[in-house]
Please model this.
Amino acid sequence: MIVNVSDAKANLSKLIEMACRGEKVVIAKNNQPVVELVKHQPGGKRKLGLLAGKIHVPDDFLDEDSEINDMFYGKGHEDHP
Model:
């Protein structure tokens, strides 16, 4: 079923019920199909730790870098936080 936006606004509850029953509901703007109303499909649970053992974070990862500090604070500026 294809409905224009104005009709979809007036009949949203009905269209949602139709989509939940598996019917194809397309909303059009100026008679051009724009979106399809579909029943929500819950995603699976996220699995943590997929990259465990595959990446290495160097020990100095959080250390300050004088070259970057110079870009932010100016060369030779020593009393930055």
User: Anything to note?
Assistant: The helical segments are 5-10, 12-20, 66-73. The beta strands are 2-4, 25-29, 32-37. The mean pLDDT is 90.
